[in-house]
Input
Amino acid sequence: MKAIDLSVNFAGVTLKNPVVTVSGTCGFGEEYAPFYKPSELGAIAVKGMTLAPRLGNPPPRIAETPAGILNSIGLQNPGVDAFVENELPRLKAEGACVIANISGSTIADYCKVAEILSETDVDFIEMNISCPNVKEGGVAFGTNAKTVNEITSEVKKHTNKPLIVKLSPNVTDITEMARAAEAGGANALSLINTLLGMRIDLKTRRPILHNNVGGLSGPAVFPVAVRMVWQVRNAVSLPLLGMGGIASAEDAIEMLIAGADAIGVGTAMFANPNLPMEIADGIAKYMEANSIEHVADISATVQPW
Ligand SMILES: Cc1cc2nc3c(=O)[nH]c(=O)nc-3n(C[C@H](O)[C@H](O)[C@H](O)COP(=O)(O)O)c2cc1C
Output
């Protein structure tokens, strides 16, 4: 057998392996520097950016749950200009493939941020229309097929970068949103964002999160994410970045089999910062053991009953 090839072609861009660290869980890459270089990843999806800097929601904004966390960070970020000036040059100098995650309060905001990033050397724009933690976090755009289509086609007019549309799981039928994004001109989809949840303190009877509700992520959401990736794989022909609860190489391989072309790791890195590299190694070992040369040969291989 020829040497195994971990690279994947994702919407026309070659990722050296299928492992991506997901937006909001890896900042701009610096916190993980003691563990791996961002250039060792398939790509790094940086924290969601808005036109102006944002402080995010007041604390408490993280609550623990069995097998996951609830967060209501609320899109804290330094603003797109600060990213372009202070973070992007370092990431590109290190050789990283960069997915710039964007948010906004209006379609015009999204278009402006996309325009600014199009003048830079980011590799992808990932449009977050699924943040459940701020009123204007885009989830209002992401839960209605008509607006998914509209915002996708508008943002497409303002960028020459491959556009990944990040879907919300907080919908009745995610395939409807996937089709709307595809019809709007999306180059790829990423899924899932967090699932809306809530915890309450027994002593105070107040919600644990100051924002009352937050987004659930981590291993608890994994089966939901696998189900949604599989459904979306059967609904559209766009490349898929599958994420949600991946905590091991086995989970990552399962997500590929469900239909993902590349996979994202987030919350589970908080417990094991080496996880992305362990997953890349684990996928390579699985390929060796099963005589698979290309990652693409694992993707979307669910067998019927
Ligand atoms: C603390 C935190 C912050 C997040 N911030 C963003 C964000 O800014 N933009 C975005 O699109 N998704 C954001 N997400 C969602 C993740 O990118 C991902 O879709 C979700 O957490 C599921 O993956 P996981 O279970 O592996 O963490 C955030 C998640 C967490 C836990």
Q: What stands out?
A: Residues 32 and 273 are 7 Å apart (CA to CA).
